[in-house]
Amino acid sequence: MTRPPNIIIFNPDQWRGDVMGHLGNPAAMTPNLDRAVEDDCVSFANAFVQATVCTPSRCSFMTGWYPTSLTTAPCTTCCTTTADSRTCCKC
User: Fold this and answer.
1) What is the DSSP secondary-structure string of 37-91?
2) Backbone phi, then psi, for 56, in 5-degree steps?
3) Cut 0.70: pTM above it
4) Which among 45, 47, 18, 43 has a CA at the least distance from the CA of 33?
5) Does residue 26 or residue 50 have the better pLDDT?
6) How far apart are CA 48 and CA 57, in angstroms?
């Protein structure tokens, strides 16, 4: 009987794509991540995000919703504040 795989989502904060040694940065010291990628892990050199800021992008990644559909604060930059901020912030 085969065991199900262990899945770890490693989503660090404020890292650029070139800050890991196994992706070719000689100044990066990431021996544990490098070893994990050599053994059996998957690493992506390119990524696409839903938002340029980390918090909305992470929320979108974890929920599957676009950042504009998961807001709790009223939108003040592009439309007037209404009772339903989700409707307001779709601009």
Assistant:
1) HHHT----S----S-SSHHHHHHHHHHSS-GGGS--SPP-SSS---S-HHHHTT-
2) -65, -35
3) no
4) 43
5) 26
6) 10
Please tell me which residue, 41 or 77, carries the higher pLDDT value: 41
In the block, residue with structure tokens 């800050």: 19
Both tokens of 86, joined, read 């989700």
Distance CA 64, CA 41 (A): 23
Cβ atoms of 85 and 71 within 8 Å: the answer is: yes
Structure tokens at 75: 């939108």
Amino acid symbol at 72: T
84, amino acid identity: D
**How many residues does this entry show for the chain?**
91
Beta carbons within 8 Å of 90's beta carbon, 6+ residues apart: 68, 69
